[in-house]
Amino acid sequence: MVASYRPYANALFEIAQEQGKEQAYLDELSDLEAIWKSNEDFRLALSHPKIEKKQKKEWIEEIFADQLDPIVLNFLLVMADHGQVAFIPEITEEYRNLYRESEGIEQVYVQSAVKLTQAQIDSLSKMLKEKLKKKIELTVEVDPNLIAGLKVKAKDIVLDNTVQTRLDNLKEKLNEK
Length: 177
Hints:
single chain; about 180 residues; alpha+beta; Glutaredoxin; 4 strands; about 60% helix
């Protein structure tokens, strides 16, 4: 089943491609997503079922008329009309995925037991670009539970060189005997 928010992301991305504004619209959606996630009043007001759509649209226009591209503003108003404003984060993520795909960008997640230096991140990024033969978008997070080592996840690849995984594998082998 296709999620109800996907057609919205697809439609906006098609318009963005026609306008040559894929990155600009992504930036605006990302800003909206950040506001949605950080401002509880904004989130509650626009997703509250008892507040009329007309009122929600007035608030959207009042807040964003001077801040958003007219296409993105109209897109947000259409979402409000159809009761889809609560899906701003999902629509943004779907749009982001469409953008990455169109630009040949691979999303890569890296988990490390310790904080990586910028030099380590740059080196890892360069190596991953060469191996994947794609532009990459790297997300790095620290997980002390890994004890030591790295875990790298890309679309179809998982490289796990963590002490925690080695310990888990050793435990499984010992339990088999």
